[in-house]
Amino acid sequence: MTVVQDTHDASRIDREMETAFVSYDWDSDESIAETIVSTVAKLSNAEPEDIDRLYDRIDPDSLETIFEPANESTGRNAGHVSFSFETYTVTIHATGTIVVSGTA
Question: Residue 47 has what pLDDT?
Fold first, then answer.
């Protein structure tokens, strides 16, 4: 197994296993969409502009909205959303964990 450290905090990308684990910070200046696109691009050994547009698969703004805090002080810590993007399944957990795995 070849694990390549990425520039995201606490991320692991294994191109051989076609899997990436990324810890997303909901307070980050980078959007969840940018994180997903850059992770898929790196996993695919491609440039972000060379892969499909994320918004052709899912509404990126909705991803942010789904996991917004329920009230002003409490973030959501349960639930997840999964969808296909490129040749991968992307799963976003309310905790900020993003798992990208190759589809069979």
Answer: 94
N-term to C-term CA, the chain: 18
User: Average of pLDDT values for 20-41?
Assistant: 90
**Residues 39 and 70: beta-carbon distance below 8 Å:** no
Q: What's the 3-state SS for the chain?
A: CCCEECCCCCCEEECCCCEEEEECCCCCCCCHHHHHHHHHHHHHCCCHHHCCCHHHCCCHHHHHHHCCCCCCCCCCCCCEEEEEECCEEEEEECCCEEEEEECC
Taking only the tens place, the pLDDT of each residue in 47-63 is 999 999 999 889 988 88
- The answer to whether 94 and 80 are in contact (CB under 8 A) is yes
Q: Give tens-digit pLDDT for 33-43.
A: 999 999 999 99
What tokens does 54 get? 């994320």
* Residue 6 and residue 12 in contact, taking contact as beta carbons nearer than 8 Å: yes
